[in-house]
Design brief:
Chain lengths: ~190, ~240
Amino acid sequence: MTIRSGLLALLASGPSHGYQLKTSFEAATGGMWKLNVGQVYTTLDRLGRDGCVVVDVHDDQKRYAITAAGREELESWWQALPGDEAPPRDELVMKVLLAITAAPQAALAVVTGQRTALTEVLQRRRRALRAEARGGADLVARLAADAAVVRTEGDLRWLDLCEARLLQLHRTTEPNPRPVQNQEAHR
Amino acid sequence: MTTPALQVVDVVKRYGSGPTEVRALTDVSLTVAPGELVAVMGPSGCGKSTLLHLAGGLEPPSAGHVLVQGIDLDGLPPAEMARLRRNHVGYVFQRLNLVPSLTALENVMLPLELDGVRRKEARAEAEAALAGAGLAGPWDRFPDDFSGGQQQRIAIARATVGERSLLLADEPTGSLDTINAELVVELLTELCVRRGTAVVLVTHEPRFASFADRVVFLRDGRVVDQTRATDRAADDEAVAVRR
Protein backbone atom coordinates (compact mmCIF):
# COMPACT_ATOMS: atom_id res chain seq x y z
CA MET A 1 0.00 0.00 0.00
CA THR A 2 1.16 3.57 -0.67
CA ILE A 3 0.64 6.75 1.33
CA ARG A 4 -1.11 8.04 -1.79
CA SER A 5 -3.91 5.46 -1.56
CA GLY A 6 -4.28 6.09 2.15
CA LEU A 7 -4.67 9.84 1.71
CA LEU A 8 -7.22 9.38 -1.06
CA ALA A 9 -9.19 7.02 1.17
CA LEU A 10 -9.25 9.60 3.97
CA LEU A 11 -10.15 12.47 1.64
CA ALA A 12 -13.08 10.48 0.25
CA SER A 13 -15.00 11.27 3.45
CA GLY A 14 -14.42 15.05 3.14
CA PRO A 15 -11.81 17.79 2.64
CA SER A 16 -8.99 18.04 5.13
CA HIS A 17 -5.82 19.96 6.06
CA GLY A 18 -2.36 18.38 5.63
CA TYR A 19 -1.58 17.94 9.32
CA GLN A 20 -5.07 16.64 10.03
CA LEU A 21 -4.49 14.03 7.29
CA LYS A 22 -1.25 12.93 8.96
CA THR A 23 -2.99 12.30 12.31
CA SER A 24 -6.02 10.66 10.68
CA PHE A 25 -3.72 8.38 8.66
CA GLU A 26 -1.86 7.24 11.78
CA ALA A 27 -5.07 6.65 13.72
CA ALA A 28 -6.71 4.78 10.82
CA THR A 29 -3.70 2.45 10.48
CA GLY A 30 -3.80 1.61 14.19
CA GLY A 31 -0.53 3.40 14.95
CA MET A 32 1.39 0.92 12.80
CA TRP A 33 2.44 3.50 10.21
CA LYS A 34 3.91 6.79 11.39
CA LEU A 35 4.27 9.61 8.83
CA ASN A 36 6.26 12.80 8.90
CA VAL A 37 4.31 15.78 7.72
CA GLY A 38 6.76 16.33 4.82
CA GLN A 39 5.74 12.97 3.31
CA VAL A 40 2.11 14.03 3.50
CA TYR A 41 2.67 17.35 1.69
CA THR A 42 4.90 15.77 -0.99
CA THR A 43 2.21 13.17 -1.68
CA LEU A 44 -0.54 15.80 -1.73
CA ASP A 45 1.51 17.85 -4.24
CA ARG A 46 1.78 14.80 -6.51
CA LEU A 47 -1.92 14.06 -6.16
CA GLY A 48 -2.62 17.70 -7.11
CA ARG A 49 -0.30 17.46 -10.11
CA ASP A 50 -2.15 14.29 -11.26
CA GLY A 51 -5.55 15.96 -10.85
CA CYS A 52 -6.63 13.66 -8.01
CA VAL A 53 -7.03 16.45 -5.42
CA VAL A 54 -7.73 20.18 -5.55
CA VAL A 55 -6.59 22.68 -2.99
CA ASP A 56 -8.27 25.78 -1.62
CA VAL A 57 -7.41 28.07 1.27
CA HIS A 58 -9.67 27.78 4.30
CA ASP A 59 -8.96 29.59 7.62
CA ASP A 60 -5.58 30.66 6.20
CA GLN A 61 -4.66 27.01 5.68
CA LYS A 62 -4.48 24.86 2.61
CA ARG A 63 -7.37 22.43 2.48
CA TYR A 64 -7.40 19.44 0.14
CA ALA A 65 -10.40 17.83 -1.52
CA ILE A 66 -10.65 14.70 -3.65
CA THR A 67 -11.67 15.07 -7.34
CA ALA A 68 -13.55 12.67 -9.61
CA ALA A 69 -10.19 11.39 -10.94
CA GLY A 70 -9.07 10.87 -7.35
CA ARG A 71 -12.22 8.87 -6.57
CA GLU A 72 -11.63 6.77 -9.66
CA GLU A 73 -8.07 5.97 -8.61
CA LEU A 74 -9.28 5.17 -5.10
CA GLU A 75 -11.99 2.85 -6.42
CA SER A 76 -9.39 0.97 -8.50
CA TRP A 77 -7.27 0.60 -5.36
CA TRP A 78 -10.18 -0.80 -3.28
CA GLN A 79 -10.89 -3.28 -6.08
CA ALA A 80 -7.25 -4.30 -6.77
CA LEU A 81 -6.60 -7.90 -5.75
CA PRO A 82 -3.59 -9.00 -3.69
CA GLY A 83 -0.83 -10.35 -5.92
CA ASP A 84 0.64 -13.82 -5.56
CA GLU A 85 4.13 -12.56 -4.90
CA ALA A 86 7.08 -14.47 -3.46
CA PRO A 87 7.24 -14.07 0.34
CA PRO A 88 9.57 -11.33 1.54
CA ARG A 89 13.12 -12.31 2.48
CA ASP A 90 12.16 -12.78 6.05
CA GLU A 91 15.04 -13.03 8.55
CA LEU A 92 13.42 -15.97 10.39
CA VAL A 93 12.73 -17.98 7.24
CA MET A 94 16.22 -17.38 5.84
CA LYS A 95 17.85 -18.31 9.16
CA VAL A 96 16.03 -21.64 9.42
CA LEU A 97 16.56 -22.51 5.75
CA LEU A 98 20.28 -21.74 6.03
CA ALA A 99 20.53 -23.77 9.25
CA ILE A 100 19.06 -26.80 7.46
CA THR A 101 21.63 -26.53 4.65
CA ALA A 102 24.69 -25.31 6.53
CA ALA A 103 24.23 -26.94 9.94
CA PRO A 104 21.66 -29.76 9.65
CA GLN A 105 22.45 -31.21 13.10
CA ALA A 106 21.75 -27.86 14.73
CA ALA A 107 18.68 -27.05 12.65
CA LEU A 108 16.26 -28.49 15.21
CA ALA A 109 17.94 -26.44 17.94
CA VAL A 110 17.63 -23.30 15.82
CA VAL A 111 13.92 -24.02 15.26
CA THR A 112 13.43 -24.66 18.98
CA GLY A 113 15.21 -21.48 20.04
CA GLN A 114 13.44 -19.30 17.49
CA ARG A 115 10.07 -20.73 18.45
CA THR A 116 10.58 -20.10 22.16
CA ALA A 117 11.67 -16.50 21.51
CA LEU A 118 8.75 -15.91 19.16
CA THR A 119 6.31 -17.46 21.65
CA GLU A 120 7.56 -14.92 24.20
CA VAL A 121 6.88 -12.16 21.65
CA LEU A 122 3.39 -13.57 21.16
CA GLN A 123 2.82 -13.67 24.94
CA ARG A 124 3.81 -9.99 25.18
CA ARG A 125 1.58 -9.05 22.25
CA ARG A 126 -1.26 -10.99 23.83
CA ARG A 127 -0.90 -9.12 27.11
CA ALA A 128 -0.77 -5.80 25.30
CA LEU A 129 -3.89 -6.78 23.37
CA ARG A 130 -5.73 -7.71 26.56
CA ALA A 131 -4.67 -4.48 28.23
CA GLU A 132 -5.90 -2.52 25.17
CA ALA A 133 -9.20 -4.39 25.37
CA ARG A 134 -9.51 -3.61 29.09
CA GLY A 135 -8.74 0.04 28.36
CA GLY A 136 -11.60 0.12 25.87
CA ALA A 137 -9.37 0.56 22.80
CA ASP A 138 -11.19 1.35 19.58
CA LEU A 139 -11.79 -1.23 16.86
CA VAL A 140 -8.92 -0.05 14.62
CA ALA A 141 -6.31 -0.23 17.39
CA ARG A 142 -7.62 -3.63 18.41
CA LEU A 143 -7.56 -5.02 14.87
CA ALA A 144 -4.05 -3.62 14.32
CA ALA A 145 -2.88 -5.46 17.45
CA ASP A 146 -4.77 -8.57 16.25
CA ALA A 147 -2.86 -8.37 12.94
CA ALA A 148 0.48 -8.41 14.77
CA VAL A 149 -0.65 -11.40 16.86
CA VAL A 150 -1.88 -13.33 13.82
CA ARG A 151 1.38 -12.75 11.92
CA THR A 152 3.43 -14.04 14.84
CA GLU A 153 1.11 -17.05 15.02
CA GLY A 154 1.76 -17.66 11.33
CA ASP A 155 5.52 -17.71 11.93
CA LEU A 156 5.04 -20.08 14.86
CA ARG A 157 2.91 -22.43 12.79
CA TRP A 158 5.62 -22.47 10.16
CA LEU A 159 8.24 -23.33 12.81
CA ASP A 160 6.00 -26.17 14.05
CA LEU A 161 5.90 -27.46 10.49
CA CYS A 162 9.70 -27.17 10.26
CA GLU A 163 10.01 -29.20 13.46
CA ALA A 164 7.57 -31.87 12.25
CA ARG A 165 9.32 -32.24 8.89
CA LEU A 166 12.79 -32.31 10.46
CA LEU A 167 11.68 -34.97 12.95
CA GLN A 168 10.15 -36.99 10.12
CA LEU A 169 13.46 -36.79 8.28
CA HIS A 170 15.46 -37.76 11.39
CA ARG A 171 13.16 -40.72 12.02
CA THR A 172 13.70 -42.08 8.54
CA THR A 173 17.49 -41.59 8.67
CA GLU A 174 18.34 -42.33 12.33
CA PRO A 175 17.23 -45.37 14.33
CA ASN A 176 16.95 -43.55 17.67
CA PRO A 177 16.78 -39.79 17.43
CA ARG A 178 17.42 -37.75 20.54
CA PRO A 179 16.31 -34.19 21.10
CA VAL A 180 19.07 -31.62 20.81
CA GLN A 181 18.68 -30.20 24.27
CA ASN A 182 16.91 -30.95 27.46
CA GLN A 183 16.16 -28.79 30.40
CA GLU A 184 13.99 -28.85 33.44
CA ALA A 185 10.84 -26.86 33.29
CA HIS A 186 11.15 -25.34 36.71
CA ARG A 187 9.87 -21.90 37.41
CA MET B 1 7.62 -20.56 50.39
CA THR B 2 4.21 -21.31 48.91
CA THR B 3 3.58 -24.97 48.19
CA PRO B 4 3.48 -25.51 44.43
CA ALA B 5 0.10 -26.65 43.15
CA LEU B 6 1.87 -29.27 41.05
CA GLN B 7 5.36 -30.74 41.03
CA VAL B 8 6.41 -33.29 38.46
CA VAL B 9 9.88 -34.51 39.33
CA ASP B 10 12.11 -36.52 36.96
CA VAL B 11 9.15 -38.44 35.67
CA VAL B 12 9.45 -41.33 33.25
CA LYS B 13 6.45 -43.07 31.71
CA ARG B 14 6.86 -46.31 29.81
CA TYR B 15 4.20 -48.43 28.17
CA GLY B 16 4.88 -52.09 27.41
CA SER B 17 8.24 -53.74 28.02
CA GLY B 18 11.17 -55.26 26.17
CA PRO B 19 11.32 -54.69 22.44
CA THR B 20 7.77 -53.30 22.38
CA GLU B 21 8.47 -50.73 25.11
CA VAL B 22 7.39 -47.19 24.28
CA ARG B 23 8.69 -44.28 26.29
CA ALA B 24 6.02 -41.63 26.48
CA LEU B 25 7.92 -39.35 28.90
CA THR B 26 11.60 -39.20 29.80
CA ASP B 27 12.99 -37.24 32.77
CA VAL B 28 10.27 -34.61 32.73
CA SER B 29 10.19 -32.07 35.54
CA LEU B 30 7.63 -29.31 35.86
CA THR B 31 6.61 -27.08 38.74
CA VAL B 32 3.41 -25.02 38.64
CA ALA B 33 2.78 -22.36 41.27
CA PRO B 34 -0.67 -21.40 42.58
CA GLY B 35 -2.27 -18.91 40.19
CA GLU B 36 0.09 -19.82 37.37
CA LEU B 37 -1.10 -20.76 33.90
CA VAL B 38 1.35 -23.05 32.15
CA ALA B 39 0.77 -24.11 28.56
CA VAL B 40 2.26 -27.36 27.30
CA MET B 41 2.90 -27.53 23.57
CA GLY B 42 4.42 -30.04 21.22
CA PRO B 43 3.70 -32.18 18.18
CA SER B 44 1.20 -35.05 18.30
CA GLY B 45 2.48 -37.96 20.33
CA CYS B 46 5.07 -35.88 22.22
CA GLY B 47 3.60 -36.88 25.61
CA LYS B 48 1.42 -33.84 26.39
CA SER B 49 -1.70 -35.78 27.36
CA THR B 50 0.32 -38.43 29.20
CA LEU B 51 1.83 -35.65 31.31
CA LEU B 52 -1.66 -34.44 32.23
CA HIS B 53 -2.82 -37.95 33.13
CA LEU B 54 0.15 -38.32 35.46
CA ALA B 55 -0.35 -34.85 36.94
CA GLY B 56 -3.96 -35.73 37.79
CA GLY B 57 -3.10 -39.14 39.22
CA LEU B 58 -5.10 -40.90 36.49
CA GLU B 59 -2.10 -43.18 35.94
CA PRO B 60 1.17 -43.63 37.86
CA PRO B 61 4.61 -42.72 36.50
CA SER B 62 7.08 -45.56 35.80
CA ALA B 63 9.70 -43.55 37.69
CA GLY B 64 9.88 -40.18 39.39
CA HIS B 65 7.31 -38.38 41.49
CA VAL B 66 4.16 -36.34 41.09
CA LEU B 67 3.12 -34.05 43.95
CA VAL B 68 -0.21 -32.25 44.10
CA GLN B 69 -0.37 -29.53 46.77
CA GLY B 70 2.84 -31.00 48.17
CA ILE B 71 1.33 -34.48 48.54
CA ASP B 72 3.27 -37.23 46.78
CA LEU B 73 0.82 -39.39 44.82
CA ASP B 74 3.24 -42.33 44.93
CA GLY B 75 1.87 -45.05 47.16
CA LEU B 76 -1.23 -43.11 48.15
CA PRO B 77 -4.04 -45.55 49.06
CA PRO B 78 -6.80 -45.54 46.39
CA ALA B 79 -9.32 -43.89 48.71
CA GLU B 80 -6.86 -41.11 49.57
CA MET B 81 -5.98 -40.68 45.92
CA ALA B 82 -9.67 -40.37 45.00
CA ARG B 83 -10.20 -37.81 47.76
CA LEU B 84 -7.18 -35.76 46.69
CA ARG B 85 -8.36 -35.77 43.10
CA ARG B 86 -11.88 -34.74 44.06
CA ASN B 87 -10.74 -31.97 46.38
CA HIS B 88 -7.82 -30.52 44.49
CA VAL B 89 -7.87 -31.47 40.83
CA GLY B 90 -10.28 -30.54 38.05
CA TYR B 91 -10.19 -31.77 34.47
CA VAL B 92 -11.41 -30.21 31.25
CA PHE B 93 -11.18 -32.16 28.05
CA GLN B 94 -11.84 -31.44 24.40
CA ARG B 95 -14.74 -33.87 24.71
CA LEU B 96 -16.75 -32.32 27.46
CA ASN B 97 -18.04 -35.48 29.11
CA LEU B 98 -21.11 -33.68 30.43
CA VAL B 99 -23.91 -36.00 31.50
CA PRO B 100 -26.63 -35.36 28.90
CA SER B 101 -29.52 -36.39 31.16
CA LEU B 102 -28.52 -33.92 33.92
CA THR B 103 -29.09 -30.16 33.72
CA ALA B 104 -26.14 -27.74 33.61
CA LEU B 105 -26.55 -27.11 37.33
CA GLU B 106 -26.81 -30.83 38.17
CA ASN B 107 -23.69 -31.54 36.10
CA VAL B 108 -21.72 -29.04 38.17
CA MET B 109 -23.23 -30.27 41.44
CA LEU B 110 -22.35 -33.87 40.62
CA PRO B 111 -18.73 -33.99 41.91
CA LEU B 112 -19.78 -32.29 45.15
CA GLU B 113 -22.68 -34.66 45.74
CA LEU B 114 -20.44 -37.63 45.05
CA ASP B 115 -18.22 -36.18 47.73
CA GLY B 116 -21.08 -36.14 50.22
CA VAL B 117 -21.71 -32.39 50.22
CA ARG B 118 -25.30 -31.59 51.22
CA ARG B 119 -27.60 -30.83 48.28
CA LYS B 120 -28.37 -27.26 49.34
CA GLU B 121 -24.68 -26.45 49.81
CA ALA B 122 -23.74 -28.20 46.57
CA ARG B 123 -26.35 -26.17 44.74
CA ALA B 124 -25.01 -22.88 46.08
CA GLU B 125 -21.44 -23.80 45.18
CA ALA B 126 -22.43 -24.98 41.72
CA GLU B 127 -24.34 -21.76 41.08
CA ALA B 128 -21.30 -19.75 42.14
CA ALA B 129 -19.05 -21.81 39.84
CA LEU B 130 -21.40 -21.37 36.87
CA ALA B 131 -21.60 -17.63 37.47
CA GLY B 132 -17.81 -17.54 37.85
CA ALA B 133 -17.50 -19.34 34.52
CA GLY B 134 -19.51 -16.54 32.94
CA LEU B 135 -22.51 -18.67 32.00
CA ALA B 136 -25.78 -16.82 32.12
CA GLY B 137 -28.78 -18.71 33.52
CA PRO B 138 -31.20 -20.33 33.54
CA TRP B 139 -29.07 -23.34 34.45
CA ASP B 140 -31.89 -25.88 34.65
CA ARG B 141 -31.47 -26.65 30.94
CA PHE B 142 -29.74 -29.74 29.57
CA PRO B 143 -26.26 -29.60 27.95
CA ASP B 144 -27.70 -29.98 24.45
CA ASP B 145 -29.63 -26.75 24.94
CA PHE B 146 -26.36 -24.81 25.18
CA SER B 147 -23.87 -23.85 22.44
CA GLY B 148 -20.43 -25.49 22.26
CA GLY B 149 -18.77 -22.54 23.99
CA GLN B 150 -21.40 -22.52 26.74
CA GLN B 151 -21.01 -26.29 27.25
CA GLN B 152 -17.27 -25.80 27.70
CA ARG B 153 -18.06 -23.19 30.37
CA ILE B 154 -20.26 -25.74 32.16
CA ALA B 155 -17.36 -28.22 31.99
CA ILE B 156 -14.97 -25.61 33.44
CA ALA B 157 -17.45 -24.77 36.21
CA ARG B 158 -17.67 -28.49 37.03
CA ALA B 159 -13.87 -28.77 36.99
CA THR B 160 -13.37 -25.86 39.36
CA VAL B 161 -16.35 -26.21 41.70
CA GLY B 162 -15.41 -26.64 45.32
CA GLU B 163 -12.33 -24.38 45.10
CA ARG B 164 -10.09 -26.94 43.48
CA SER B 165 -6.55 -25.66 43.24
CA LEU B 166 -5.32 -27.39 40.09
CA LEU B 167 -7.07 -27.43 36.75
CA LEU B 168 -5.81 -29.73 34.00
CA ALA B 169 -7.12 -28.78 30.58
CA ASP B 170 -6.45 -31.02 27.58
CA GLU B 171 -7.15 -29.14 24.33
CA PRO B 172 -10.27 -27.50 25.83
CA THR B 173 -10.61 -25.29 22.77
CA GLY B 174 -10.46 -28.12 20.25
CA SER B 175 -14.12 -28.14 19.30
CA LEU B 176 -14.73 -24.38 19.41
CA ASP B 177 -14.47 -21.53 16.91
CA THR B 178 -11.76 -18.92 17.48
CA ILE B 179 -13.86 -16.35 19.35
CA ASN B 180 -15.43 -18.91 21.72
CA ALA B 181 -12.09 -20.65 22.18
CA GLU B 182 -10.51 -17.33 23.17
CA LEU B 183 -13.29 -16.70 25.67
CA VAL B 184 -12.64 -20.11 27.24
CA VAL B 185 -8.90 -19.45 27.56
CA GLU B 186 -9.67 -15.95 28.91
CA LEU B 187 -11.81 -17.65 31.53
CA LEU B 188 -8.96 -19.99 32.51
CA THR B 189 -6.67 -16.94 32.84
CA GLU B 190 -9.24 -15.21 35.04
CA LEU B 191 -9.47 -18.26 37.29
CA CYS B 192 -5.71 -18.05 37.81
CA VAL B 193 -5.78 -14.36 38.65
CA ARG B 194 -9.02 -14.25 40.61
CA ARG B 195 -8.93 -17.53 42.49
CA GLY B 196 -5.29 -18.50 42.41
CA THR B 197 -6.11 -21.71 40.55
CA ALA B 198 -3.07 -23.29 38.90
CA VAL B 199 -3.83 -24.31 35.33
CA VAL B 200 -1.96 -26.65 33.01
CA LEU B 201 -3.25 -26.12 29.49
CA VAL B 202 -2.33 -28.60 26.79
CA THR B 203 -2.72 -27.07 23.38
CA HIS B 204 -1.20 -27.18 19.92
CA GLU B 205 -2.36 -23.63 19.15
CA PRO B 206 0.21 -20.85 19.72
CA ARG B 207 -2.75 -18.45 19.92
CA PHE B 208 -4.03 -20.04 23.11
CA ALA B 209 -0.63 -20.89 24.55
CA SER B 210 0.19 -17.19 24.42
CA PHE B 211 -2.31 -16.54 27.23
CA ALA B 212 -0.07 -18.55 29.55
CA ASP B 213 2.46 -17.21 32.02
CA ARG B 214 4.88 -19.83 30.77
CA VAL B 215 4.96 -22.14 27.76
CA VAL B 216 6.72 -25.50 27.99
CA PHE B 217 7.68 -27.34 24.81
CA LEU B 218 7.75 -31.14 24.69
CA ARG B 219 9.28 -33.26 21.96
CA ASP B 220 9.62 -37.05 21.97
CA GLY B 221 8.55 -37.11 25.63
CA ARG B 222 11.17 -34.63 26.82
CA VAL B 223 11.01 -30.97 27.77
CA VAL B 224 13.12 -29.28 25.11
CA ASP B 225 12.55 -25.63 26.00
CA GLN B 226 10.29 -23.17 27.78
CA THR B 227 9.57 -19.46 27.72
CA ARG B 228 10.60 -17.27 30.62
CA ALA B 229 7.83 -16.69 33.14
CA THR B 230 6.10 -13.46 32.18
CA ASP B 231 5.44 -10.64 34.55
CA ARG B 232 1.80 -9.59 34.23
CA ALA B 233 2.25 -6.41 36.25
CA ALA B 234 5.28 -5.22 34.25
CA ASP B 235 3.51 -5.80 30.95
CA ASP B 236 0.42 -3.93 32.09
CA GLU B 237 2.62 -1.05 33.21
CA ALA B 238 4.43 -0.95 29.83
CA VAL B 239 1.09 -0.64 28.08
CA ALA B 240 -0.03 2.09 30.48
CA VAL B 241 3.18 4.08 29.78
CA ARG B 242 2.70 3.76 26.02
CA ARG B 243 -0.73 5.36 26.16
